[in-house]
Amino acid sequence: MKFFSVDSPLYRFLSKLLDVIRLNFLWIIFSVPLVTIGASTVAALSVALKMADDEEGYIGRSFLKAFRENWKQGTALWLITAVALYAIYLDFQFFEALEGNPMIFLLVGILSIVVVVSALPYAYPLAARYENSLFRTIQNSIDITRRYVGRTLFLVFVLFLEFVLFQFNGTMLFFAILLGPGFMIYTVAAFSKRTFLLIEKENGTVQDPPGKE
Q1: For residues 122 and 146, what is the distance between their CA atoms, to the nearest angstrom?
Q2: Which residues contact 179 (CB under 8 A, 6 or more apart)?
Q3: The pTM is what?
């Protein structure tokens, strides 16, 4: 009967899976107004960062608390993200539409993608875990990306792979709705948590990334 006990790997896996589904549901509900996607993402990451080390027990309560505490910075991060992504989209639209496909637009688009990938992967988990100004949060994200290029590229690759797999067929699309965003948020949290702990250990601090004010 140990196979079904609360200490068994199967029980821990199913418990974690249920938590991810709950987190996914909360993220979707609180992201419906669209403008709240950033605050919802920061709140979900706040919970997922604790889940990564089995520190979280009350998903809904913790999510609501994190949403209230981080909605301003989360919304600001989302607006910056949305504007940046839309600008990249427009750039490539111009590249396709203009006669001769001016290479300047292609180069600007690629450079913009590099900047966004450098600035944003850790910005949301940083906002979820640490108290800091918006500028410092983004700057810390860039610094961490620059310092851990390999880790960051691997994280981006894993997220891309998850995104592709969730769209593989009708069955995977069902799972994408059920736990897709929550699963990807947990992936970001698990990667970020390890990186943050490395930095904290090197600095001899607790929850104090480089440049924290």
Answers
A1: 11
A2: 17, 20, 21, 24
A3: 0.83
